[in-house]
Amino acid sequence: MIGVAPQATEATVHIITGGISPAFLKTFAQAHEAAGYDLVLVGYTSQSAEGFQVASFAAAHTERLGYLIAHRPGFIQPTLAARKIATFDNLHQGQIAVHIIAGVSDAEQRMDGDFQPKDIRYRRAAEYLSVMRRVWTEPGPFDHKGEFYAFEGVRSDVQPLQQPYPPLFFGGSSEGALAMGAEHCDVFAIFGEPLAETAERIADFRKRAAVFGRTPQFNMSIRPILGETEAEAWQKADEILAQVNAELGRHAGRAASDESGRRILEAAARGDVHDTRLWTALAKAYGAQGNTTCLVGTAEQVADAMLEYYRLGIGGFLLRGFDPLGDVTAYGRELIPRIRAGAAEIDAAAGGTPDA
User: Percent of the chain at pLDDT above 70?
Assistant: First the structure.
């Protein structure tokens, strides 16, 4: 992830399936640091390696790179989670942010023994975050009795290094997700959508967060496809789509699994390209699962397109390519410097950093 406002650039250091290669993890983390990323996302699935340990290992082999660790409330107590996050924050000198997720699907949650439907999981997550924030911010012991949790005499000897606590990210478009995030989270992470829809989402969430006296920041996940020329970039995009369709075994798109995916598929139904560079054909093939919307063009063109989102209030971008190591290096050389320079020019012309 790169942050261009007060935030940064992100990337993914997912351990999604299969085993772990410590040597590759070390190389991968160091490549992101060398490329100028601020945070890397450590993903979570119900069969993947444990994210805090993955991040801790990677942090031991980097100097300034931060780790955005995906965390699912409900599997450990919020009091323990608060101490766990604060411990990492101190041991690795503020190199942590936390991405709150309520689960990809009911079926996957059941793999870890969680049989609650998503609407209840979001209510539980909101209470979970309320308790964690109290652990981090209240000086003395406190009691809590809620719908899902009850505690007596809660206190923690370890407090976060980052004050008042590490940034809390979340994503989602359901009412439950938005209610939880508006009250408790600092950064709303969204997938790439057309500019008009993105502006609407930002405005809507700002209103929701304002009810709680909060000023949120925004982050966008996007997959850049770069070429030396625009034609070369679009040729790459076509080749990627052909490979994906061959792997899926069909050309028809799959159904979206959540509200965010539904929004993206609605855009894809209107056309494969939006606002000149936003390409949704890959999202259509995948059923808009994960970050599958792309920006296609030369590095200059893609940076310009990303800066249009910055003008709307997107303060950071999570960038993920198709060639894990090669794209990280290319983004660091060609794309990230242009984004940061362009954001600085926009800020200077506006007389300061916009509220992102």
Answer: 91
Give the tens place of pLDDT for each residue, 288-317: 887 899 999 999 999 999 999 999 999 999
pTM of the model: 0.92
CB 279 within 8 A of CB 295: yes
What are 340's two structure tokens?
């940061």
The answer to whether 177 touches 102, Cβ cutoff 8 Å, is yes
* Cα separations in angstroms, 59 against 27, 30, 64, 87, 163: 12, 9, 8, 13, 20
For residue 353, what is the DSSP state?
Answer: -
Alpha-carbon span 13 to 18, nearest angstrom: 14
Q: How far apart, in whole angstroms, are the C-alpha atoms of residue 59 and residue 93?
A: 10
Burial class (CB in 10 A: 0-12, 13-18, 19+), 141: exposed
Q: Which residue has the tokens 């894809």?
A: 268
β-pairing, 294-297 with 142-145? unpaired
Report pLDDT digits (tens) over 146-174. 999 999 999 999 999 999 999 999 999 89
- The length of the chain in residues reads 356
Locus of tokens 């919307």: 293
Which amino acid would we find at residue 292?
A: T
CA distances to 1, 26, 49, 68, 149 from 22, in Å: 22, 6, 12, 19, 37
Extended beta strands in the chain, E state? 2-3, 9-12, 39-42, 66-71, 96-100, 142-145, 150-154, 168-171, 187-191, 217-226, 273-274, 278-279, 294-297, 316-319
Summarize pLDDT for 226-257 with one digit per residue, the tens. 999 999 999 999 999 999 888 877 544 555 56
Distinct helix (H) and strand (E) counts, the chain: 13, 14
User: Quick one: average pLDDT of 123-146?
Assistant: 96
174: left (phi over 0), alpha (psi -120 to 50) or beta: beta
